[in-house]
Design a protein that fits this description.
2 domains, 3 helices, Glutaredoxin
């Protein structure tokens, strides 16, 4: 897990030292001050010169599995991001799909096009 923003490393340092929310963050923060990462992932707000609030989930093979972009006035749901990661890992382990609102411990569904719409 990485946190990436267009802020400078100095802004990250001050944010980490002063924000109570950052006390529990134990992953690296990356400065994309030149905006190249944001451009590459198409999450740059070119009008503002900042990144949209986005979550990008990439598998070990480097393929983007999910990209969620949030309106500026709407916070992210950590619970949904964790649920999605667990569902992705469930699929990798079992080969089964995770239906809508799937939670760990629930059954998966076979990916069978002939049964589309029955679950």
């Amino acid at each position: 897990m990485l946190g990436i923003s267009t802020d400078s490393i100095y802004s990250h340092k001050v944010f980490r030292e002063t924000s109570p929310l950052m006390q529990n963050v134990h992953y690296p923060l990356i400065s994309d001050h030149n905006q190249s990462i944001c451009r590459d992932y198409r999450v740059l707000d070119t009008k503002e010169g900042t990144a949209f609030r986005a979550t990008v989930i990439i598998n070990p093979e480097g393929i983007i599995l999910a990209k969620l972009i949030y309106p500026k006035d709407v916070g992210r749901s950590a619970k949904e991001i964790v649920r999605m990661m667990e569902a992705i890992q469930f699929h990798r382990k079992t080969g089964l799909g995770a239906p809508a609102d799937w939670q760990p411990g629930m059954q998966g569904i076979p990916r069978d096009l002939s049964k589309a719409g029955t679950y």
